[in-house]
């Protein structure tokens, strides 16, 4: 099983899960369908299913799957708040998909746990805007109680070698916040250095693994004394609630403003911006 990471828009990801023997593929969150169709044609892949984690409010991605529905016979599996907590396994060739109901960021948010029969590769989970590398999604349509269940009971119970493919490239700013929460966490420092190097090379930081996330993601470290000390809480749900509020208000360090004489030089045409 191969997962192709496709960067789109400003910081979004969409994915192709490819059954290499048959060249059949499953798309996850294809917010830019024409780009996906180009890749399918170029690589000789046939689309068998489309998995959508959640709805988007941005006009850039409204109706994102419409062209795929018109141009493909692929099965469409969409987020749906009426679905039960977890669904029976779906199967597309040798690729298995377990749909996990994870409401909070949106009321119908789904995550998808994916693995291939008779394959030694680690399984994958596509987490949309529920779990990020070193972070979690905002509680737009849900509660801290829901997100706690999503992170601990649903995603946290998956095999620890599961590869995590999230919906956005937020890793550096998430790690900066993680460092504020746990300034003594060496794993956070190492990961931040690595993520900056990846960014310099214009490379994605996905996937991580669940085992790695438990080492540096504060939203999965709710019982750690350092995280509880930062929040001033002991109850895991209250720790999560405070963490999310602090993250919502967290600002990256501002760039140093240009000196007044430099601004004058720009205005007079003596310097180029």
TrEMBL record:
Keywords: Hydrolase, Metal-binding, Zinc. NCBIfam families: GSH_gloB (TIGR03413). SUPFAM superfamilies: Metallo-hydrolase/oxidoreductase (SSF56281). Residues 11-168 form the Metallo-beta-lactamase domain. GO terms for biological process: methylglyoxal catabolic process to D-lactate via S-lactoyl-glutathione. InterPro entries: Clx_II_MBL, HAGH_C, Hydroxyacylglutathione_Hdrlase, Metallo-B-lactamas, RibonucZ/Hydroxyglut_hydro. One of its GO terms (molecular function) is hydroxyacylglutathione hydrolase activity. It comes from Lepisosteus oculatus. This is Hydroxyacylglutathione hydrolase like. Belongs to the metallo-beta-lactamase superfamily. Glyoxalase II family. The keyword Hydrolase applies.
């Amino acid at each position: 099983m191969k997962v192709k990471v496709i960067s789109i828009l400003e910081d979004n990801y969409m994915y192709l899960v490819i059954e290499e023997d048959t060249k059949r593929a499953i798309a996850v969150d294809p917010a830019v369908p024409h780009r996906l169709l180009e890749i399918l044609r170029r690589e000789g892949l046939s689309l068998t299913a489309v998995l959508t984690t959640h709805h988007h409010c941005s006009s850039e991605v409204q109706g994102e799957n419409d062209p795929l529905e018109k141009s493909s016979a692929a099965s469409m599996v969409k987020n749906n708040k009426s679905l039960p907590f977890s669904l029976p396994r779906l199967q597309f060739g040798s690729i298995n998909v377990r749909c996990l109901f994870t409401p909070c960021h949106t009321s119908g948010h789904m995550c998808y746990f994916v693995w291939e029969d008779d394959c030694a590769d680690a399984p994958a989970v596509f987490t949309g805007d529920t779990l990020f590398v070193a972070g979690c999604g905002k509680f737009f349509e849900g509660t801290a109680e829901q997100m706690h269940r999503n992170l601990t009971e649903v995603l946290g119970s998956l095999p620890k070698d599961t590869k995590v493919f999230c919906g956005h490239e937020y890793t550096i700013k998430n790690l900066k916040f993680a460092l504020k929460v746990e300034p003594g966490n060496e794993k956070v420092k190492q990961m931040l250095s690595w993520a900056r190097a990846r960014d310099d090379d214009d490379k994605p930081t996905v996937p991580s693994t669940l085992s790695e996330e438990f080492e540096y993601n504060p939203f999965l470290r709710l019982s750690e004394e350092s995280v509880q000390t930062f929040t001033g809480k002991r109850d895991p749900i209250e720790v999560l609630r405070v963490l999310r509020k602090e993250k919502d208000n967290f600002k990256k360090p501002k760039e140093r403003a240009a000196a007044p004489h430099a601004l004058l030089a720009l205005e007079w045409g003596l310097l180029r911006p």
